[in-house]
Amino acid sequence: MQVHLFDSASQVGQAAAMLVGAQLLEKPNSVLGLATGSSPISTYQELIRLHCAGVIDFSSTITFNLDEYCRLPIEHPCSYHRFMKEQLFSHVNLRAENTHVPNGNAEDLSAECARYDQAIAKAGGIDLQLLGIGRNGHIGFNEPSDQFVYGCHVVRLTQSTIEANRRFFDSEADVPREAVSLGVGSIMNAKRVILIATGEDKAVAVRKAIQEDIDPATQASILRTHPNVLFLLDKAAAAKL
Ligand code: GLP
What we know:
Helices cover about 30% and strands about 15% of the residues. By secondary structure, the chain is of the alpha/beta class. The protein has one domain (about 1-235): 3-Layer(aba) Sandwich (Rossmann fold), CATH 3.40.50. The protein has a seven-stranded parallel sheet, with helices on one face. Strands 4-8-7 form a three-stranded antiparallel sheet, with helices on one face. The two termini are about 15 Å apart. 2-amino-2-deoxy-6-O-phosphono-alpha-D-glucopyranose binds near residues 36, 39, 67 and 161.
C-alpha cells in the first residue's frame, strides 16, 4: 500500500490523471474501472485536457463503471450513465461500445449483475481501478456490513449514503434506495487500484480504511491487502491519520 499526500484536491486529480495517462501510454487497450461522485471529477478534467493536448488516446480503451442507481432513467441528471457522459465520455475518443455502466433498469437485476461480472472477465479483467470513498468507508456502493460481497450485486443504500447523495437530487425522497455495484472481490481483482479522497468529510473513513482493523464495517479497509494500491489524499482527507 502506498499513501501519497498532496496540498490540494486539484493536485490529487492531476496525480490520478498522470497515473491513468501512464497506464494508457503503456497499454492503450487497458481496461479502466471508473468511479463517479465528486472525487474523480478533477481527474476526468485533467484526462480531458491531456486528451485534447494529444497526449492520451482512448480509441482502444475499455471502461467499466463501478455502479449505478436502480430504477433511475439513464437520462436522469443524477444517473451515473449521464454523469459519465457529461464528465468524461463525450469529451474524449472512447468508443461508445467500449464504455460500460451497469444497467440499473434491467428487469432481472441479478442476471444483469452476472452479465456485468462476465463482461469484465471477458475483457480480461480491470487493469486500473479508480475509486472514491464514501463518508462511511464504502467503495462503489459496497456499504458497511458484516461481510465483504465478492461479485456484482444489488445493494440497499444506507441512510448515511442517501443523506450524502441527497445533495445531487431535488429532495431526499428522490434518492434511489438501491443500486447495482461491483462487489469488493471484483474491485480487488483489478491489477492496480487508485483511491482518491479529498476533503475533511472523508478524514474519518480514510483513517479507518488505512489505520484501523480490516473490517467489512469499513469496506475500503480490505484494499490494504491489495498488492498494488495507492491512496491519493489531500491534506484535509489525511488530517486524521
Ligand atoms: C458515491 C459512489 C461512490 C463514490 C462515493 C463518494 O455514493 N457510489 O462510488 O466513491 O459515493 O462520492 P463523492 O466523491 O461525491 O464524495
